[in-house]
Amino acid sequence: MKNLALLLSLSIALPALAERIPLPPNAPKSYQAECASCHMAYPPALLSAGDWKRVMERLDQHYGTDASLGIPQKQEISAFLERNAGNVWKPGISAQPARISQTPYFIRKHGEIPAKFWRDPRIKSAANCEACHRGASKGVFSEHDIAIPELRGD
Ligand code: HEC
Ligand code: HEC
C-alpha cells in the first residue's frame, strides 16, 4: 500500500514523458548557429537516425531552400543528430522527404487536431511547432501549454 501511494504521488508529480523533449545539453554550438535561423532547433529525438541522415545528405535541396554547410559543420551536426536520434520516443520512419510532422509518432499525437488548423494563418505549417507549443524551444510540448486557445487541453 505504501508503495502504491508513492507510485501515485510520483505519477502526479511527474509530467508525462512526451511533454518534455528538450535539446540535449551536449548540442554543439553549430547546431543552434546553422539549424535554428529559419526554424527552431528541432530536438533530435523527434526523427530516427536514418531520417536525419537523409535530411543532412540533401541540405542543398532543403524543403525548397538551400541550407548547405561546410564539411566540418555538416559532420559535427550529423554526428550529433544521429547519436541523439529518437529512441525513447520511437518516432518511427517518416514519409520522404523526412519530416518530423510525417512520422507515425507525430501523426498519432496530432490526430485529433481538425485539418483547418494546419492551414490557419497563425500556424502556416505543421513544421512551425512554436506557433502552437509556446515552450517548444525549451523542449516543452505539453497539451496545456498551447498558444491557440481552441486547441488547449485543460
Ligand atoms: C535557409 C533556411 C533554413 C536553414 C538554415 C535550415 N532549414 Fe530546415 N527547413 C527550412 C524550411 C523552409 C523548411 C520547411 C518548413 C515548412 O514546411 O514549413 C525546413 C524544414 C526542416 C525539417 C522538417 C520539419 C517538418 O517536420 O516538417 C527538418 C527536420 C529540418 N528543417 C532540419 C534542419 C537542419 C538539421 C538544419 C541545419 C543543418 C536546417 N534545417 C537548416 C529552412 C531551413
Ligand atoms: C496546430 C498546432 C500545433 C502544431 C503546429 C504542432 N503541435 Fe504538437 N500538439 C498540439 C496539440 C493541440 C497537442 C495535444 C494533442 C492532444 O493531447 O490531443 C500536441 C501534442 C504534441 C506532443 C505530445 C505531448 C504529450 O504530452 O503527449 C508532442 C511531442 C508535440 N505535440 C510535438 C510537436 C512538434 C515537435 C511540432 C513541430 C514539428 C508540433 N508538435 C507542432 C498542437 C500542435
Detailed description of the structure:
By secondary structure, the protein is mainly alpha-helical. The protein has helices at residues 2-13, 29-35, 49-57, 71-83, 104-109, 129-132. The longest helix has 13 residues, at 71-83. The two termini are 31 Å apart. The mean pLDDT is 90. One heme C binds next to α6.
Topology:
Blueprint: H1 2-13, H2 29-35, H3 49-57, H4 71-83, H5 104-109, H6 129-132
The structure holds heme C (HEC) (2 copies).
The site of one heme C (HEC) has 20 residues, from helix 2.
* CATH second-level architecture of the largest domain: Orthogonal Bundle
Q: How many independent structural domains?
A: 2
Helix content: 25-40%
Low-confidence stretches: none
Counting DSSP E segments of at least 2 residues, the number of strands comes to 0
Please report which band the strand proportion falls in: under 5%, 5-15%, 15-25%, 25-35%, 35-45% or over 45%.
under 5%
Per the CATH scheme, the topology name of the largest domain is: Cytochrome Bc1 Complex, Chain D, domain 2
Major beta sheet, specifics? none
Cα Rg: 17 Å
Ligand list: heme C
H and E order:
HHHHHH
Distance between the termini: 31 Å
